[in-house]
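# step 3/5: fold
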Amino acid sequence: MTWPQDWQTNLTFFLRWGHLIAGITWIGMLYFFNLVNVNFQKQLDAGTKGKVNPILMPSALWWFRWGAVATLLTGFIYYVIILGTEESGHRPLMWFFIGWLLAFVLIAGLLRAAIAGGFLKDGRVYAVAVAAIVFVVAYVVGDLTRKMGASNRSIAIAIGGGLGLVMFMNVWMIIWPLQKKMIAATRATAESGAAAPADMPKWARRAFLASRTNAWLSIPMLFFMGAASHFPIFGTLVVGT
Protein backbone atom coordinates (compact mmCIF):
# COMPACT_ATOMS: atom_id res chain seq x y z
CA MET A 1 0.00 0.00 0.00
CA THR A 2 1.31 3.44 -0.96
CA TRP A 3 -0.28 6.50 0.61
CA PRO A 4 -0.59 9.40 -1.90
CA GLN A 5 1.90 12.15 -1.12
CA ASP A 6 0.34 15.18 -2.83
CA TRP A 7 -1.97 17.30 -0.69
CA GLN A 8 -4.68 17.76 -3.35
CA THR A 9 -5.30 14.02 -3.75
CA ASN A 10 -5.59 13.63 0.02
CA LEU A 11 -7.77 16.71 0.48
CA THR A 12 -10.23 15.92 -2.32
CA PHE A 13 -10.52 12.28 -1.26
CA PHE A 14 -11.25 13.09 2.37
CA LEU A 15 -13.70 15.78 1.33
CA ARG A 16 -15.55 13.22 -0.79
CA TRP A 17 -15.42 10.68 2.05
CA GLY A 18 -16.77 13.20 4.54
CA HIS A 19 -19.37 14.27 2.01
CA LEU A 20 -20.57 10.68 1.67
CA ILE A 21 -20.77 10.11 5.43
CA ALA A 22 -22.61 13.39 6.03
CA GLY A 23 -24.90 12.79 3.05
CA ILE A 24 -25.83 9.31 4.22
CA THR A 25 -26.69 10.76 7.64
CA TRP A 26 -28.78 13.59 6.19
CA ILE A 27 -30.63 11.64 3.51
CA GLY A 28 -31.03 8.66 5.84
CA MET A 29 -32.85 10.86 8.35
CA LEU A 30 -34.88 12.40 5.52
CA TYR A 31 -36.06 8.95 4.45
CA PHE A 32 -36.77 8.01 8.06
CA PHE A 33 -39.07 11.02 8.44
CA ASN A 34 -40.88 10.37 5.15
CA LEU A 35 -41.02 6.57 5.03
CA VAL A 36 -41.37 5.74 8.72
CA ASN A 37 -42.25 8.70 10.92
CA VAL A 38 -45.19 10.08 8.91
CA ASN A 39 -47.19 6.86 9.28
CA PHE A 40 -45.93 6.32 12.84
CA GLN A 41 -47.27 9.72 13.94
CA LYS A 42 -50.71 8.91 12.54
CA GLN A 43 -50.96 5.99 14.96
CA LEU A 44 -50.25 8.07 18.07
CA ASP A 45 -52.90 9.81 20.13
CA ALA A 46 -52.34 13.35 21.44
CA GLY A 47 -51.19 12.18 24.87
CA THR A 48 -48.61 9.77 23.47
CA LYS A 49 -47.33 12.40 21.03
CA GLY A 50 -46.83 14.75 23.98
CA LYS A 51 -44.55 12.18 25.62
CA VAL A 52 -42.73 10.78 22.56
CA ASN A 53 -42.14 13.70 20.23
CA PRO A 54 -40.39 16.11 22.64
CA ILE A 55 -37.82 13.33 23.19
CA LEU A 56 -37.59 11.79 19.72
CA MET A 57 -37.83 14.76 17.40
CA PRO A 58 -35.14 17.13 18.81
CA SER A 59 -32.51 14.38 18.59
CA ALA A 60 -33.60 13.21 15.13
CA LEU A 61 -33.78 16.78 13.82
CA TRP A 62 -30.33 17.56 15.25
CA TRP A 63 -28.73 14.85 13.12
CA PHE A 64 -30.95 15.84 10.21
CA ARG A 65 -30.07 19.53 10.06
CA TRP A 66 -26.37 19.27 10.99
CA GLY A 67 -25.94 16.39 8.57
CA ALA A 68 -27.23 18.82 5.96
CA VAL A 69 -24.65 21.44 7.01
CA ALA A 70 -21.75 18.98 6.85
CA THR A 71 -22.94 17.67 3.47
CA LEU A 72 -23.20 21.15 1.99
CA LEU A 73 -19.83 22.38 3.31
CA THR A 74 -17.79 19.37 2.22
CA GLY A 75 -19.49 19.27 -1.17
CA PHE A 76 -19.06 22.99 -1.81
CA ILE A 77 -15.35 23.00 -0.92
CA TYR A 78 -14.83 20.00 -3.20
CA TYR A 79 -16.70 21.73 -6.04
CA VAL A 80 -14.63 24.90 -5.69
CA ILE A 81 -11.41 22.86 -5.85
CA ILE A 82 -12.31 20.93 -8.99
CA LEU A 83 -13.63 24.02 -10.78
CA GLY A 84 -10.19 25.55 -10.24
CA THR A 85 -8.69 22.74 -12.35
CA GLU A 86 -10.98 23.25 -15.35
CA GLU A 87 -11.26 25.61 -18.30
CA SER A 88 -14.36 27.23 -16.84
CA GLY A 89 -12.60 28.25 -13.65
CA HIS A 90 -14.93 29.43 -10.89
CA ARG A 91 -17.30 31.33 -13.19
CA PRO A 92 -20.08 28.70 -12.96
CA LEU A 93 -20.48 29.46 -9.24
CA MET A 94 -22.30 32.72 -9.99
CA TRP A 95 -25.02 31.01 -12.02
CA PHE A 96 -25.09 28.09 -9.58
CA PHE A 97 -26.10 30.38 -6.72
CA ILE A 98 -28.36 32.68 -8.74
CA GLY A 99 -30.26 29.81 -10.33
CA TRP A 100 -30.73 27.58 -7.33
CA LEU A 101 -31.45 30.31 -4.79
CA LEU A 102 -34.12 31.57 -7.18
CA ALA A 103 -35.49 28.03 -7.36
CA PHE A 104 -35.72 27.90 -3.56
CA VAL A 105 -37.54 31.25 -3.39
CA LEU A 106 -40.07 30.08 -5.97
CA ILE A 107 -40.61 26.72 -4.28
CA ALA A 108 -41.00 28.41 -0.88
CA GLY A 109 -43.64 30.63 -2.47
CA LEU A 110 -45.44 27.57 -3.81
CA LEU A 111 -45.41 26.07 -0.31
CA ARG A 112 -47.09 29.15 1.15
CA ALA A 113 -49.65 29.17 -1.65
CA ALA A 114 -50.37 25.46 -1.13
CA ILE A 115 -51.15 26.08 2.55
CA ALA A 116 -53.31 29.12 1.75
CA GLY A 117 -55.57 27.00 -0.46
CA GLY A 118 -56.53 27.29 -4.11
CA PHE A 119 -55.48 24.94 -6.89
CA LEU A 120 -52.01 24.41 -5.37
CA LYS A 121 -53.66 22.75 -2.37
CA ASP A 122 -53.80 19.63 -4.55
CA GLY A 123 -50.50 17.89 -3.88
CA ARG A 124 -50.27 16.68 -7.48
CA VAL A 125 -50.51 20.21 -8.86
CA TYR A 126 -47.92 21.41 -6.35
CA ALA A 127 -45.57 18.56 -7.36
CA VAL A 128 -45.89 19.41 -11.07
CA ALA A 129 -45.17 23.08 -10.36
CA VAL A 130 -42.05 22.20 -8.33
CA ALA A 131 -40.86 19.80 -11.03
CA ALA A 132 -41.26 22.52 -13.68
CA ILE A 133 -39.18 25.00 -11.67
CA VAL A 134 -36.46 22.43 -11.03
CA PHE A 135 -36.34 21.35 -14.68
CA VAL A 136 -36.03 24.90 -16.02
CA VAL A 137 -33.35 25.93 -13.50
CA ALA A 138 -31.39 22.70 -14.01
CA TYR A 139 -31.46 23.15 -17.80
CA VAL A 140 -30.36 26.79 -17.66
CA VAL A 141 -27.62 26.28 -15.04
CA GLY A 142 -26.35 23.15 -16.78
CA ASP A 143 -26.30 24.81 -20.21
CA LEU A 144 -24.51 27.93 -18.96
CA THR A 145 -21.96 25.80 -17.12
CA ARG A 146 -21.36 23.71 -20.26
CA LYS A 147 -20.83 26.82 -22.40
CA MET A 148 -18.14 27.99 -19.98
CA GLY A 149 -16.12 24.86 -20.74
CA ALA A 150 -16.95 22.80 -17.66
CA SER A 151 -16.57 19.02 -17.70
CA ASN A 152 -19.26 16.36 -17.29
CA ARG A 153 -18.30 16.21 -13.61
CA SER A 154 -18.77 19.94 -12.98
CA ILE A 155 -22.01 20.18 -14.96
CA ALA A 156 -23.51 17.22 -13.11
CA ILE A 157 -22.47 18.70 -9.74
CA ALA A 158 -23.90 22.08 -10.78
CA ILE A 159 -27.29 20.35 -11.08
CA GLY A 160 -27.07 17.73 -8.32
CA GLY A 161 -25.37 20.08 -5.89
CA GLY A 162 -27.91 22.77 -6.76
CA LEU A 163 -30.74 20.44 -5.82
CA GLY A 164 -28.87 19.77 -2.59
CA LEU A 165 -28.68 23.52 -1.95
CA VAL A 166 -32.45 23.84 -2.37
CA MET A 167 -32.94 20.91 0.01
CA PHE A 168 -30.55 22.50 2.53
CA MET A 169 -32.49 25.78 2.42
CA ASN A 170 -35.74 23.86 2.91
CA VAL A 171 -34.27 22.26 6.02
CA TRP A 172 -32.98 25.41 7.68
CA MET A 173 -35.48 28.00 6.44
CA ILE A 174 -38.72 26.02 6.54
CA ILE A 175 -38.66 22.55 8.13
CA TRP A 176 -36.57 23.23 11.24
CA PRO A 177 -38.25 26.53 12.26
CA LEU A 178 -41.68 24.94 11.91
CA GLN A 179 -40.63 21.78 13.76
CA LYS A 180 -39.30 23.88 16.66
CA LYS A 181 -42.68 25.58 16.98
CA MET A 182 -44.55 22.27 16.85
CA ILE A 183 -42.28 20.57 19.40
CA ALA A 184 -42.68 23.50 21.80
CA ALA A 185 -46.46 23.53 21.31
CA THR A 186 -46.72 19.75 21.79
CA ARG A 187 -44.68 19.92 25.00
CA ALA A 188 -46.74 22.83 26.35
CA THR A 189 -49.99 21.06 25.55
CA ALA A 190 -48.84 17.87 27.28
CA GLU A 191 -47.68 19.73 30.40
CA SER A 192 -50.55 22.17 30.83
CA GLY A 193 -53.43 20.46 29.07
CA ALA A 194 -54.10 23.60 27.06
CA ALA A 195 -55.39 23.40 23.52
CA ALA A 196 -52.85 23.23 20.70
CA PRO A 197 -52.33 26.46 18.70
CA ALA A 198 -54.94 26.98 15.99
CA ASP A 199 -52.22 27.29 13.34
CA MET A 200 -50.53 24.02 14.24
CA PRO A 201 -52.18 22.01 11.44
CA LYS A 202 -50.89 24.58 8.93
CA TRP A 203 -47.37 24.35 10.41
CA ALA A 204 -47.51 20.58 10.17
CA ARG A 205 -48.80 20.61 6.59
CA ARG A 206 -46.14 23.06 5.41
CA ALA A 207 -43.34 21.15 7.13
CA PHE A 208 -44.65 17.90 5.65
CA LEU A 209 -44.76 19.32 2.12
CA ALA A 210 -41.24 20.76 2.45
CA SER A 211 -39.94 17.43 3.74
CA ARG A 212 -41.74 15.47 1.03
CA THR A 213 -40.35 17.90 -1.56
CA ASN A 214 -36.84 17.16 -0.28
CA ALA A 215 -37.49 13.42 -0.44
CA TRP A 216 -38.47 13.63 -4.12
CA LEU A 217 -35.65 16.06 -4.98
CA SER A 218 -33.13 13.67 -3.40
CA ILE A 219 -33.74 11.17 -6.23
CA PRO A 220 -32.48 13.33 -9.13
CA MET A 221 -29.92 14.89 -6.78
CA LEU A 222 -28.32 11.50 -6.12
CA PHE A 223 -28.53 10.62 -9.82
CA PHE A 224 -26.55 13.68 -10.89
CA MET A 225 -24.02 13.34 -8.08
CA GLY A 226 -23.38 9.77 -9.19
CA ALA A 227 -23.26 10.84 -12.84
CA ALA A 228 -20.45 13.29 -12.04
CA SER A 229 -17.89 10.47 -11.92
CA HIS A 230 -19.67 7.47 -13.42
CA PHE A 231 -22.13 8.49 -16.15
CA PRO A 232 -20.90 10.82 -18.96
CA ILE A 233 -24.22 12.36 -19.97
CA PHE A 234 -22.62 15.78 -20.50
CA GLY A 235 -19.35 14.69 -22.08
CA THR A 236 -16.21 12.68 -21.31
CA LEU A 237 -15.57 11.55 -17.76
CA VAL A 238 -12.68 13.18 -15.93
CA VAL A 239 -10.28 10.62 -14.46
CA GLY A 240 -8.62 11.57 -11.19
CA THR A 241 -9.29 14.35 -8.66
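# step 4/5: annotate
Helices lie at 7-42, 46-83, 92-116, 123-147, 152-192, 200-230.
# step 5/5: archive (pending)
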